[in-house]
Design a protein that fits this description.
The chain is α/β, with parallel strands linked by helices. The protein contains 18 helices and 30 strands. A hairpin with a 3-residue loop joins strand 11 and strand 12. It is globular and about 95 Å long. The structure holds FE2/S2 (inorganic) cluster (FES).
């Protein structure tokens, strides 16, 4: 049997095979937020002709069913069918690599430490070349030289020895021996060679970011980012864990993330003509599940009570083991995790915020797919996680995208005309909307009376910006070749995400016996690009209503932490101390969390007294 597309192309489909699996076999990926369980309703496709059996229809309206729209994960062709993949269902990840200028982190590094102490040490050696009389082996020659310098007990792996013969001869025995603590020799470089690079990686559930750094001074060579291709197996960490425990799932997830990282490395080194052998260290920062999958460890027990990861403090492994396309022998340091749902990305965040060094009580919020929170100071730290979903990173929103060129990042709406004024990254024509744009748009729509407290459009409003679209009622943000809209379903998604974050914050603050007044500083992290309007995020009810001067927006702190650990031994130690010190609170087990969440589903909250600033703004409007 075959599936024929409107483009004329066709692919085979096996007996009793679902449409989504047939497409996957041919490397065509759909948005499958629930990983094919039939519960998210995202994998919609339109069958234009041919007989099929479909087993789940709950997520499809009758009107759509009449048009032939079905869930690809629960539809099985019974003869040749012709198919249209709806634009919003198609998942394109590979071609979304973006190289961008990122915030210069060297200032942050200077403020925290400033002294570079790398994982890989170098030792310059001038070895006497072999002669007929002095004919010992290459390794013995190296050992003899190290002995003379008083360095005993250096270990040599097979990988090191197999590459040393040529590398010692080509610089005429004037070499630079690269080694790591232990000590263990890892490779031989040209003695004159001073170019050294490092790789910092943030593996987010939705987005992957890679920095290539010049290790001599910490300067940034370039940054690349892309969607995490694991999205094709599910949107959040739970669906990924489920997939990892099925058949070849773990391999598929691991291959996806490694390929993404390697593609980003490839793009950067090609652009800057960097020899991959010179990338001598990597540091990985990710949540506990992403870190496990990166190392090929099953995350199965993280999901089963009592929620135990295989590793929190990862040994130093090698790039060859990880299959990273850099120097095979390069050590790979993984930021330590705290617990099942609080990982190295949050340890990175706390490190970059410096809250663990100060006496003031601070709240740290990482607004990503998982939404982790930490509270504390230089004496204590407490942390929790609340699944926010990937919408602020653009996934699951009709015209959502990451904070890259072409993304609407700010929105103002005229109270009388309801016409929006848009700020777009790169000042180009907009192609989508990123997290900060969504926060702006919804809070503006709420303040200007376009949506009500539940996030529903006020239908009687006289504006042609509100219209009935393919996916229900929507607001047109931009009219162009392709209109950019925000639908009621998008708004619902965003409200769910912000409610989870706010509920998490409320619970954690109560747990430590504090009120909002005790919070002297709030650090916000997340992939919002360079912009997040705190006032608007308060109107949305995502951030607590505190004086604006208490907030600091830090950007992507997961990559910042990886960068810091790449450069400094002291900061690696500090990261480990943070992970040791943090107490983890499990929110999912708590009934109060559900109550807090339900109350936070409104704009800004069912209890408006918690948001006096917003109340004042609404009344003054
Ligand atoms: S409903 Fe099909 S992937 Fe979620």
């Amino acid at each position: 049997m075959n599936i024929k597309f409107t483009t004329g192309k066709s692919i085979s489909v096996l007996n009793k095979e679902s449409i989504i699996n047939a497409l996957k076999r041919h490397e065509i990926y759909l948005i499958a937020a629930c990983g094919g369980k039939g519960t998210c309703g995202k994998c919609r496709v339109k069958v234009l002709g041919g007989r099929y059996r479909t087993s789940k229809t709950g997520k499809i309206s009758q009107a759509d069913r009449n048009k032939g729209i079905v869930l690809a994960c629960h539809t099985f062709p019974e003869e040749d069918i012709s198919l249209e993949i709806l634009e919003e269902t198609r998942l394109v990840v590979g071609d979304k690599i973006a190289l961008s200028k990122a915030k210069d982190l060297s200032e942050l590094f200077r403020s925290l430490d400033g002294e570079i102490s790398l994982i890989v040490k170098r030792l310059y050696l001038e070895l006497p070349p072999p002669t007929i009389q002095d004919h010992i082996g290459d390794l013995e020659r190296l050992r003899r030289e190290l002995d003379l310098k008083g360095i005993k007990e250096m270990r040599f792996s097979h990988g090191f020895i197999s590459s040393m013969a040529d590398r010692m001869r080509s610089p005429n025995w004037k070499i630079s021996l690269a080694y790591v603590g232990g000590p263990e020799a890892i490779f031989v470089a040209d003695g004159k060679d001073s170019v050294r690079y490092g790789l910092a990686v943030d593996i987010g559930t939705t987005t992957i970011v890679v920095y290539i750094v010049d290790l001599s001074d910490g300067s940034l060579i370039d940054v690349g980012s892309t969607y995490n291709s694991q999205i094709r197996h599910g949107d959040d960490v739970i669906t990924r864990i489920v997939h990892a425990t099925e058949g070849r799932g773990l391999h598929e997830l691991r291959d996806a993330v490694i390929e993404d990282i390697n593609e980003l490395i490839e793009t950067i080194i090609e652009k800057h003509k960097i020899n991959r052998e010179m990338i001598e260290t990597a540091v990985i920062s990710g949540n506990t599940i992403m870190s496990h999958i990166f190392w090929g460890l099953s995350p199965q027990y993280i999901r089963e009570e009592p929620y135990i990861p295989t590793v929190n403090f990862f040994p130093m492994w090698k790039a060859g083991t990880a299959r990273l396309h850099i120097n095979n022998q390069a050590p790979v340091y993984t930021l330590p995790c705290v617990a099942s749902y609080v990982g190295g990305d949050i340890v990175s965040g706390v490190l970059a915020s410096k809250m663990h060094r100060n006496h003031e009580i601070a709240l740290f919020m990482d607004i990503g797919t998982n939404g982790e929170i930490a509270i504390g100071n230089n004496e204590w730290l407490m942390t929790a996680a609340c699944s926010a979903g990937p919408c602020f990173e653009g996934s699951g929103i009709k015209h959502g995208m990451r904070a890259t060129e072409g993304a609407i990042e700010s929105v103002k709406i005229d109270r009388n005309t309801h016409e929006p004024e848009l700020g777009v990254i790169g000042n180009s024509n907009p192609v989508g909307i990123c997290g900060s744009g969504m926060i702006d748009a919804i809070s503006e729509m709420f303040l200007k009376g376009i949506i009500d407290q539940k996030g529903k459009f006020v239908r009687e409003l006289k504006t042609d910006r509100i219209r009935e679209g393919e996916d229900g009622v929507e607001f047109v943000l931009y009219r162009g070749e392709k209109d950019i809209v925000l639908t009621e379903a998008d708004i619902e998604n965003i409200l769910r995400a912000k409610a989870a974050i706010y509920a998490g914050v409320s619970m954690l603050i109560k747990e430590v016996g504090f009120t909002l007044d005790n919070i002297e500083r709030v650090y916000i992290a997340g992939g919002f690009g360079n912009y997040l309007d705190v006032d608007k995020a308060i109107i949305l009810g995502m951030l607590p209503d505190l004086p604006k001067e208490r907030f600091r927006f830090l950007g992507n702190t997961s990559i910042a932490g990886a960068y810091l650990c790449l450069l400094s031994e002291r900061l690696r130690k500090e990261a480990e101390e943070i992970a040791q010190k943090m107490t983890y609170m499990e929110l999912s087990a708590s009934r109060n969390f559900m109550d807090e969440y339900m109350s936070a589903l409104f704009l800004p909250h069912t209890d408006i007294a918690l948001f006096p600033t917003v109340e004042k703004l609404k009344n003054s409007g």
